[in-house]
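Sorry to interrupt, but I need a hand with the structure work. Please put the record directly below this note.
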Amino acid sequence: MRRVRWHPLALGDVSEAAAWYGVQGGVALETAFADELETALGRLASNPGIGSGRYADLLRIESLRHWPMHTFPHLIFYFDREPHLDVWRVLHSQRDVAGWMHGSKEPK
């Protein structure tokens, strides 16, 4: 099982999304978002190869993978770097993902 490491951009993404859900639906919705994210990260940490590499090809970022959250419309972008799962971004799926990622430096 990989240990999750957070890129500062991903922490900002999650903080922003959780705050938005908190405003829209209160603590219960904010907590549901956090719980689902934790579940998804647990699954990825155990099985890092299950994410899609589609954006790696589109963005020309080698080994970038993503995984959709189940209930919330967010994509978790990560790198499998044994012994870590490096979470790079957590973005809403309706955003211009390529635009948001273009200005982000790949974590080393």
In short: The first helix runs from residue 8 to 46. The chain has a mean pLDDT of 92. The chain is about 45% helix and 25% strand.
